Each structure stands twice: as C-alpha cells, then as structure tokens.
Amino acid sequence: MANRIIEYPVPLMLKKIYKEKIQGELRVRNEKLEKRLFFVRGDLIFARTNVIQERLGEILFKIGKINPAQFWNLNKLLDGKDGKVGKILVEENIVTQRDLFLALLFQIKTIATSTFTLNSGEWEFISQAPQVPADSNFKVELPGVMVEGIKKMKNTAYFRNRYYYQTPKLGRLSESIKKALPKEIFHFSQLLSNFDNKPNETIIAELKMEEDVYWKNVVLLFLLSVVEFVDVQVDRDLNKNIEEMMRLHEKVRSGQYDYYELFSLKSSASSEDIKEVYFRFAKKYHPDRVSQAPDPDIKEKSNFVFSEINKAYEILSDDIKRREYDMNGPEGGDADESIKEKMIEKARMLYRKAKTLYGQKKFWEAQALLEQAVRLGDEKASYYLLLGLCQINIPTMRRIAEKNLQKAIELEHWNAEAYAALGLLFYSEKHLKRAEGFFRKALSINPDHDLSRKKLLEITGADAEKKRFSFFGKKK
User: Using CB atoms within 10 A of its CB, is residue 71 exposed (0-12), middle (13-18) or buried (19+)?
Assistant: First the structure.
C-alpha cells in the first residue's frame, strides 16, 4: 500500500527500518523521479534511481574521479557496449576498481539522502529479501545517511506541526550513535537533558536558537530514536487548578456574575474573608502557576481571569469602592459592553499575530490563534478565511478547513478570496471538477483574480502563467 509523502515522510520509514533492523525494498516516486532503496538488517545495501544527476557518470565527475573531457565522452565510450557502466570504465582504465567502489558508495548515499528533500509523491515498502547482484552489495549504516539527509531537509513543518507543544524526552545515546553524530549535535543532545518536561516552544525560546536549526537537530535525534516526543506531564493539582480556572474563564467571559459570586462569597463577607480568598486564588490561578501547561492558550486565559480577580479584589478590599459597587454594580450598565469590547479587541490582536505566522508558514501555530479569535465571538469572514487557509496546509485538518471557508462565504458571499480558497482546497485533494467550479465563481466576482485564473488554466490544460500570488493581493 502506497503512503503519501506529505502525510508520512520517507525519513520516518528510514527510522523504522533502522530501529527494527528490517529488510526489504523501499520504492519512492513522484511525477519526476523513481528511487529504489534496498535494506538488509537495517543497513542500506544498494540503491537505484532514474534521476540524471544521480547517475554513476555524474557521480564520478562530481567526486573528481573523471575529468570534464572524460565525462563529456562517456556516451561515445559506452555506445554499442553491453554491461555495467562501472565495469566498462574499469576495463577501459578510465577509473580504478577502488574509485568505482567509492563512487558507488557515494551514489547510494546520495540517492538515500535526497529522499529527505521530498515533499510530494508516495512511497511503499516491500518486506522481502532484496534482489541485488552480488557485486553490488554494499553496507551503508543509516545513522550516517540521516545526518547527511537532515542537512538537505528544507522543510521541517511536518514535525513542527505535530510536536511543537510536546517535550523531547532524551534516551540512551549508544556508542555507535555518538560516533555518527557531529560534535554540535552531540552538544545539542546534552543541552536537551536540562529541559525536562518542557515543550519544544519553551526550549527554543530559552536556548535562543533559530527555529529551523532547532528542529533539524531535534528531528535528527528523533529519527535515530535518541529522542521521543511525549506530552508534557503536569501534576494532578495543576490539572485540577486548570480545570477550575477554565470554568472561571467561561464565567468571566460571559459577564454573567458579580464579584462576590466570582469569589464564592456572600455580600456580607468580611474584609478578612475577601483577602483570604484572593490569596488562595492567586496561589492556584496565577499565570505563572500554569506556565507548565502544554496548551499555550491556558496561560492567556489565566491572564484574562487573573486580571478580573485583581480588579474584583481592588474594589472589594476598599470600603468606599465596595460600598459604591454594592449600590451600582461594577461599571453601571456599561459592564457587559466593556467586556464585549475587550473580547473583540483581543480577537483582532490574535488575528494579526496569526496573519504574521501564516506568512512565516507556521500554519499549525496560526490556526491555534485563529480558533481562539473565532471563539471570542467576533465573527469576521477574514478570521474564518485565514483559519481555512492555514488548515489547507495541514493535511489532517482539511475537512475542517472546508467548513471554515464555507463560513467565510456565508459571512461575505461577495468575497472572491473565500471561493478561491475552497478551489485551492479541492485542487490539493485532486477534486478538480469541484475546484474548477470555485475558481470560476471567484472569477465571476473578481475577473482580475490572478490566482483563480492561473489554477483554472492549469485544470483546463492551458499554459499556466508563471507568476505567484498571495491571498492578500500582493505578488510574491
């Protein structure tokens, strides 16, 4: 059964082959290439490719075993001769047997490490004894392949999206792994041991390391089974406090409460009673107390709740302000309106942050902020549109993306961007007829919508314009 690379990257299968010491043939293909990697007991023993740059002649030239003149005359030399290229080159004294061995070894590694760069296509693994010629049986250890492959990896989004809020748990570093690791990665693994039970996002911030560098380092250790990603563990009291704080958050957000009710006190409560409850709340719900929670939303909600707790205490602990509150309520008849305005402003702030993250291709983080924004009740088509666009780029969330883009259309049926986004969603899922319908709808609203025109030309088989456009109206 074939696996889509976007949903299950090839390096994950290499991790499994190495860890379980299995044998078989890994076939990788997309529209442009086909590669076949052969394994015995977790080691790579041979590889084949149809990629021109990975052919033996190109490899010999690249590593300096043949000169430019010999390289350009290869076709003439091989014309009319049967047999393997390498064998012919040795017989013609173009290369030595040792040069050929080194070139074949380099070729196998090059084919294997190039799979780390693939973001599209599919692969399948055939569990059977690999059939390769006896003179083509090598032994390439996968840790070295992974070290070189990670250097070539351009996009760590798959791992970042899935493990961002988890913690890397460091396991045993075997002697063979230590030998394969570059010094800087070994040093990085030692640093990780100082961050027990902290999520990746916190570690990145505390190390002050570039995200891309961090993720390449930690993914390499993950592929080598030195690191596993696990949920951040929190103590039972913290879990209980978070649950209580979340209930308070819903109450505060609704605006349907008074300060006595917030503190679970009667209006006749003494100053000492109020002070005691306040300090108990501070101990349980202070934002710093829940900073170890795995969900980053929790600290924001705690800030919101604790701000209201402070406000309540400020009024109830002051005799004059308390008397005024007892007579008129917190802010007279404008209390509900004030809360609503704060929620709307917070939603806007979250949207702005999410838009920046979207531009940085941090789709998972952006969609988390946008989900908060829409929950705050400020229903804007732009929020649902951007949320849907983020989720299009997260394969496991594409069904939800359709729902949010439909919501954007419901709110602004005249907005071509939402129709174009739905077109992109169905285009990515290869439902071309449905995609075509939405692109045509976008163009009927805005005849100058370049992205829709480009995709429509691709679907209908015409030459696509060689331009790139963003959803926010600017050419990239």
Answer: middle
pLDDT for 168: 92
| Rounded distance between C-alpha atoms, residue 69 and residue 216, angstroms | 39
Which residues lie below 8 Å from residue 94, measured CB to CB, with a gap of 6+? 66, 70, 77
Residues 6+ apart with CB under 8 A from 406: 422
C-alpha distances (whole Å) from 319 to each of 201, 267, 275, 372 are: 45, 13, 13, 37
pTM above 0.85, yes or no: no
Could you tell me the sign of the dihedral formed by the alpha carbons of 117, 204, 222, 235, in that order?
A: negative
Instruction: Give 296-342 pLDDT, tens digit per residue.
Output: 567 777 778 888 888 888 888 888 888 887 777 655 444 445 556 77
**Domain layout of the chain by residue ranges:** 3-141, 156-230, 236-330, 350-459
Q: Helices 335-359 and 363-375, interaxial angle, to 10°?
A: 160
Whether the Cβ atoms of residue 204 and residue 168 lie closer than 8 Å to each other:
no
Q: How far apart are CA 469 and CA 134, in angstroms?
A: 52
Angstrom distance (rounded) from CA 366 to CA 301: 17
Give the Cα separation of 362 and 350 in Å (integer).
14
Query: In angstroms, rounded to a whole number, what is the distance separating the alpha carbons of residues 11 and 197?
Result: 26
* Coil, helix or strand at residue 41: coil
pLDDT in tens, 125-137: 999 888 877 777 7
3 state DSSP class of 448: coil
Residue type, 142: L
> What CATH number was assigned to the domain covering residues 350-459?
1.25.40.10
**Distance in angstroms (rounded) separating the CA atoms of residues 92 and 226:** 47
Give 444's contacts (C-beta < 8 A, 6+ positions apart): none
Q: What is the CA radius of gyration of the chain?
A: 30
379 within 8 A of 408, measured Cβ to Cβ:
no
Q: Which residue has the tokens 């013609």?
A: 92
Strand partners, 124: 27
Q: Quick one: CATH architecture of 236-330?
A: Orthogonal Bundle (1.10)
- How many alpha carbons lie under 13 Å from residue 72 in its C-beta half-sphere? 2
